[in-house]
Amino acid sequence: MRDKLFTAFKVLISLGLIVYLFTRIDLAEVKTALASANYLYLALALILYFGAIALNVYKWGYLLRTQGLAVPFINLLSHTLVGLFFANLPLSQVMGDIARGVDLARHTKGHGAEVAVSVLMDRLVGLASFLFASVVTLALAVFSWGRVDLTSLWVTVLLVLLAFAIALAVLLSRRLRGLVERLFVRRPLSRFVTLYQSLSDSVQMYRSNVGALAVAFCIALSGVLVTNIVNFLAAESVQAAIPLLWIFVFNPLTPIAQFIPSIGSGLGVNQGVFVLLYSIVGKVTGQPQALAMSLVMQVLIYIVSLPGGVLWWRARKL
C-alpha cells in the first residue's frame, strides 16, 4: 500500500509540473522553437552525450580496478546502458544505479560487495563533481560578472558541498566514525545506526587510497564539462540564445532533479528545473526557450537509454 501511494505521489509531481508549465508558458513559442530545431546541433549533442557516458564508464571502471576488480570497458558500457534504460522507470537514477549494479554483479559472481561499493562511490564522486563545478562557476558569476542576485544561491550550494565533504570524511575516517556513532545512541538517530555503520564499512576500502578518489573526481569533472557542451548545443538547436558561460553556471545544478520524485528520467521535474534555473533565477533566456531546451534534453536522455533496453532484452532472451 505504501509503495502504491509513493508511486501515485511521484506521478502527481511529474504530471502536476507538466500541467503547471504547459498552462503558464506560451506553447506557441515552444512549438515554434521545437519545429525549427537545428538537427545538426542535435546530432552533435547526441554524440557528445555518449562521450559523457563513456567518461562515466571509465570512472566506474577505475573505481572497480582500485578494488582489484578489472572489468572490460565494453562490458561496463553495456551495464551502464542497461542502467540508463531502467532509469526511465520510477526512482529514476536510483533505479538506474541498482540496475547496472545488479547487472554487473550477475556477471562477476562472488564480487557483489565490491560492485555495490563501486556504484555507491561512483554516484558520490559524480555528485561531488557537479557540486564543486556549481560552486566555482557561481562564484565567478557573483564576484566577477556582477550577478550579486545569485549570492544566496552560491552560499546555499557552497554549504551543501561542505556538508557533502564532511559527510564523506565521516564515512572514511575511523576516528570521526567513532565520534559520530556516539550521536546515534540517542533517539531518534538510534534507528539509523545500522545504516550508518554499513555505509561506513562499505567505503573503508577507499580510506587508504584517497588518491584514487581524486583521480575519479577529475574524470567526473571532465564529464561535467562535456555535459555542459551538450546542454549548450541543445540550447542552440532551439535558439534559446544562452551564452556558454551561463550553461557552465547552471547546468551543474540540474542533477538536483534526480532527487525529486518523478515518473522516470525526471520527466516533468527536468522541465521545471530548467525553467527555474535558466529563466526565473538565471534570467538568461525566456521561459518558452528554456522549456523547449529541456524537452530536447529529455528526448536525448530517452534516445541514449534505448540501446540499454535492447541489451537487456537480448540478455533476457538468452
Give the proportion of residues in helices: over 70%
Overall average pLDDT: 82
**In total, how many domains does the architecture comprise?**
1
SS-based class: mainly alpha
Write the H/E string, N to C. Answer: HHHHHHHHHHHHH
* Main sheet specs: none
Strand proportion: under 5%
Low-confidence stretches: none
The total of beta strands comes to 0
Number of helices: 13
Distance between the termini: 34 Å
Rg from alpha-carbon coordinates: 20 Å
Shape: globular
Note down, in words, how this protein is organized:
The protein is mostly helical and 318 residues long. The protein has one domain. 76% of the residues lie in helices and 0% in strands. It is built from 13 helices and no strands. Helix 3 packs across helix 13. The longest helix has 32 residues. It is globular and about 55 Å long. The model has no long low-confidence stretch (mean pLDDT 82).
Give descriptors for this structure:
globular, 318 residues, 13 helices, mainly alpha
Short summary of the structure?
The chain has 318 residues and is mainly α. It has helices spanning 2-24, 27-35, 39-66, 73-86, 93-107, 112-143, 151-172, 174-183, 193-203, 210-237, 244-250, 269-281, 287-317. The chain has one domain (2-317).
Set down the secondary structure blueprint.
Blueprint: H1 2-24, H2 27-35, H3 39-66, H4 73-86, H5 93-107, H6 112-143, H7 151-172, H8 174-183, H9 193-203, H10 210-237, H11 244-250, H12 269-281, H13 287-317
Helix pairs in contact: 2-13, 3-4, 3-6, 3-10, 3-13, 4-5, 4-13, 5-6, 6-7, 6-10, 6-11, 7-8, 10-13, 12-13
